[in-house]
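Hi F.,

I've been meaning to write this up properly since the lab meeting, where we talked about keeping a consistent format for the predictions we share between groups. The idea is simple: the sequence comes first, exactly as it goes in, then the structure tokens exactly as they come out, then a line or two of notes. No screenshots and no reformatting. I'm using this chain as the first example so we have something concrete to point to.
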Amino acid sequence: MIWTFTRDNRQARCEIRRNADGLDYEFVTTSDDGTEQVERFDDPTALIDRSVQYFKQLFEGGWRPLPDPR
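Output, unedited:
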């Protein structure tokens, strides 16, 4: 699952995906300058908690979801 956020004509991206071996999960954030950070989780609940925390930080910082182009 990928989310794209926008603020002042800049974009940031978040992605939740399985890691390469398919056993664990990754929470990948890409900042507006292209810097990527990967956090790994073996517990889906911890992954969701972390993503909610990150989304809250984005919203508090004025970021908004980019509308789905579909």
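Notes:
The mean pLDDT is 94.
Helices lie at 44-60.

If this format works for you, I'll send the rest the same way.

G.
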